[in-house]
Amino acid sequence: MTIALAVFLVTVSLCASAAAWAADDALRRLGISTRWVWLGAIASSAVLLFGPALAPGSVPQAMGRMIDATPMIELPALMVGPDVATSTGPGPGAVLAGLWVLLSVGMIALLVRTHRELLAERAKWDVAEVRGRDVYLSSDRGPAVAGILRPWIVLPTWVLKLPESQLRLIVLHEEEHLRGRDSLLLAGALVFLVLTPWNPVTWWQLRRLRTAMEIDCDRRVLSIEPDREQYGHSLLSVAARASGPSFGLAAFTERPLSLKRRIVAMTEKNSRWTPVRAAAFLALAMLIGVQACAVDSPVMVRDSGTISDEDTIERADGIVRERAADGEAQPEIDIPAPESPRSAVDLNAGPAFTPFTVAPSITNRTEVIEAMEAEYPPLLRGAGIGGTVRLYFFISAEGVVEDIRVDQSSGHPALDQAAMRVGGIYDFTPALNKDEQVPVWVSFPVTFQVR
After folding, report:
1. 363: number of CA atoms within 13 Å, CB side?
2. Confidence category of residue 242, pLDDT binned at 50, 70, 90
3. Distance CA 268, CA 439 (A)
4. Where would I find the beta strands (DSSP E) of 45-113?
5. So what's the pLDDT on residue 300?
6. Lower CB density within 10 Å: C or N end of the chain?
C-alpha cells in the first residue's frame, strides 16, 4: 500500500505542477496573483488522496445504481494474507512506511529547530523605526518577514546605508508581505511538505510558490511606486549581499533564477496576443487539472472501480466473463459457473433482498482462503500492496453459488479478479425462511493484505 500511495502522490504532484505552470503563465500575464495556484498544487496530492473519503456521499453506490434500501445479508469478512507467525520480517511496504515516517519527523524537527534558532537570534537584535515601521535590525538576516500569527520585519543593518529611494522600496516590499500574510501562506505550504518530504516535485513546487509570492509582491509595490528602474536597482543591491533563503522567511530576494524570473515579470510587456495566449494556457491548465483529479486514490474506491451487472455476460458454454469497455468479453477472469440449475429469481434485476430466518454460511472457509492465497497476484504481494473487494454472491435454494459480482472494487483490478476467480470454490449452507430453503443474495468483503 505504501508504494501505491507514493506512486499516487508523485503522479498527482506532477500533473498539478504542470497545471500550475500553465496557469501561472496565463495569470501572471493578466496581472493576477499566482501564489494561490502554487499552494493549490502543493496541497493537491493530500486533497485528492483523502478528500473523496471525507466528502459527504463519497461511498460509491454498488453495481453502478441504487440498490433496494433493505439490507443485504452481511457475512463475516475473509482475510487473505500470510499469517503473522510465518512472517520472517517486515515487508518492503513496511520498511518504506517507516522511512516515510522518519523523513516526516525529521522534517518537523528541522522546522522546529530553524524556528527556535530564529527566535534566539531575534532576542539579540535591536528594534528600530525605519520609514515609520518598527523593524528588527540584524547583521545579515533579511530583508525578510518572519512569524506566522504575528509576523515581523527583519532588515540587515547594511540596508540602512542604501540610497533613500531604494530603502523606501525595500521597506514597502516587506510591508506588502505583511499585508498579504505571506508568512502564513508559506507555513501552510510547509505543512504539506512535511507530509511528503521525500517527493522532489513538492520541493520544486515550494520553490515556485516562493517565487510567485515575490512576483505578486513586486506587482503590488510597483502599483504603489511605479519606478521599475529604481526597484530593479534595489533588487540587485540586496541580491549582492543578502543572506540565503530560510524555511521561515518570506525574503526580499531569493536565488538567482528566482531573481531573473522576477525581473522578467516586471519588465515584460503585453501584446494583443496576450489574452489569447493566457486563455490557451488556462485551458491547458484546466485540462491537466482534470487529469490529476482522475487519478484513482489508493485510500478511496471510486465509482469507476466497481463492476456493474451490465459489465458481466454469460455465454452458452457456462462461462461468466467481465465485459470490457468496448463490449467485448475479457478472457482473463473466467469464472466457472456452477452446474446446478438456475433459481427462479431473475438475476438480471441485480442484488435484492429475500426474506429469510436463517442466513447462509460458508462451510469451507479454509479451502477458500487457501485458494485466495494461491490467486494473490505475486507482484502486488511482493510490493506490499493489498486491498479489500466487496463481493455479491447469489446463492440458490440448494446453497450453490450461481452468480458473483463486484460490489465495491479494491482499487486494483488484479485483486478484484483474484477474488472472483475462486467463486466456484465457495460452499454455502442454504438460507432458510422458516423451514423453506430460499435463494438469497449475500455480500461480504475479501481483504488481501501483507502483514
Report:
1. 10
2. low
3. 75
4. 73-74, 78-80
5. 47
6. C
